[in-house]
């Protein structure tokens, strides 16, 4: 039965959903393939996009009007705009895991280092909703 296509692994399915969601939001995404020369713990998926200050104004206006906006998202974006000149680069890094998948010590340290460097959108995604 070698003619049958191999089943997609659950982590692959989650990664594709997260990637597709981020691409719809305007991000350029790439997958980090692990190898013997890779940095240990590097997240599976990275994403970046340029954002205009006007977008932040809309987010802040929504928050002030009482519309629901995630507080962490609002604070992150306000902070990023403070140093910008109208354009800024949004960066995200996600380790993809199934509902029962465990994050390694190296992955945990890498994500912690990204956050220590100011990347507030880094972590573990077990479903695409985790990156909303």
Characterization of the model:
The protein has 132 residues and is of the alpha+beta class. The chain has one domain: Trna Endonuclease, Chain: A, domain 1 (3-Layer(aba) Sandwich). Helices cover 39% and strands 20% of the residues. The chain has helices at 10-24, 53-64, 71-82, 105-116, and strands spanning 28-31, 45-52, 87-96, 122-125. It has a four-stranded mixed β-sheet. Helix 2 (53-64) packs across helix 3 (71-82). It starts with 9 loop residues before the first helix and ends in a 7-residue tail after the last strand. The mean pLDDT is 81.
Per-chain topology:
Blueprint: H1 10-24, E1 28-31, E2 45-52, H2 53-64, H3 71-82, E3 87-96, H4 105-116, E4 122-125
Q: What is the CA-atom radius of gyration, in angstroms?
A: 17 Å
Could you say which structural class the secondary elements and strand pairing correspond to?
A: alpha+beta
CATH topology assignment = Trna Endonuclease, Chain: A, domain 1
What proportion of the residues form beta strands (DSSP E)? 15-25%
CATH class: Alpha Beta
Number of strands: 4
> What low-confidence regions span 5 or more consecutive residues with pLDDT below 50?
none
Helix content: 25-40%
SSE pattern? HEEHHEHE
* Amino- and carboxy-terminal Cα gap: 40 Å
Query: Reading side by side through the largest sheet, how are the strands ordered?
Result: 1-2-3-4
Shape: globular
* Main beta sheet strand tally, sense and closure: 4 strands, mixed
- Please, how many domains? 1
Number of continuous helical runs = 4
> If classified by CATH, what would the architecture be?
3-Layer(aba) Sandwich
Mean pLDDT: 81
